[in-house]
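Worked example

This section walks through a single chain of length 404. The input is the sequence exactly as stored; nothing has been trimmed or padded.
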Amino acid sequence: MKNSSATLAIFFSQVGHSMSHIFMLLYPTVVLALEKEFHQSYGELLVLMTLGNVLFGVAALPAGWLGDRWSTLGMMIIFFLGLGASAIFTGCMSSTGGLVLGLALIGLFASIYHPVGMAWLVKNAENKGRALGINGVFGSLGVATAALIAGVLTDIINWRAAFIVPGVIALLVGVALIYCVRRGLVAETFADAKPFVKPPASQMKRVFIVLSFTMLLNGVIYQSVTSALPKILAEGVPDLTGGTATGAGALVSFVYFCAMGASLVGGYLSDRFSVKHLYIVTTLVQVPVYAIAATLMHLPLLFAITLAAVFNTIAVPTENVLLTRYTPERWRATAFGAKFVLALGLGALGVPLVAYIRDTTGSFHAYYLLLAAIAFVIAVIAFGIPSEQMRRKLDPALAAKAMP
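Given that input, the structure is written out below as tokens.
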């Protein structure tokens, strides 16, 4: 029963990861259809999602604390039901104020997943790097399909359906989880299936300080890129988008589908090699890619954006492994909550930033250069993470394995 419960818990956690990203990224594609209906500029409409993006990160900390101190399962049920109801509410709005409120509610309930769902996953998984890699695939699947789902539903029905249809599905998943809990098929988990060797408190503090800066800056990159990508591709690759929301959404999906398998690569490598060096290298590679993207259009731009997404995706499980490894078990959901306060809450400032750059300069040229600079700073800061040699001294199993 314990193994079957762990398997179902991991399944619901993976589905939740996809949904958290799908719901947060419906609007950046829907906004392409709202420019005509609301008679406002792209920048003016895009910033309506800022509050929701901030809550997506900021509310993660109290959500993680409740997951640690109250109930992981209870929080996940609230996640699915609240997300579904908020999306349906948003689809019924007819004013910009209503959209702000609806998107804020989506961000609030979506914030539950990353601290609670990922901590839940790590507790139930024995091979944590692999599990986090697969989790990243589901997250990438959500990012990849969000734009396509929103584009297709917007073009075939209307923009409201882009929120209402996924909302109904989320409610059904929440009901399914309630059923599994009541039947005893999914149980609360209180300890890791395979715990990490505990590092010294000094190393924990050092790593969290370093990661606080890198996670914040990675959040700025992630939040701004995922929000701006439909517009970037609509303008940069017009021959493939055809000027439709579906076309832009399909290209965004293509980019993230290409990057999806990279999460598995990151998880695999994280279990076998120096996580610190992997984190630094995958971030450094993004620097020249973003810088070159500033000079490109059409297919070369699409290739550059896809390449950057691949390396960014490889870095995600490595970052999560680092956070998991240097966090006490009993505070893991809270630690993930703190991460997403930085990455998704403060990182949400990247959305009005890219909107401002686009509206004031008329292009994304300066934005690409900014991304290159941020990636470089992340790589430099990451050198402050303890070396693998220091970890081996604390873990005889690692010393015997002699990881590179």
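What to look for: The longest helix spans residues 201-236.
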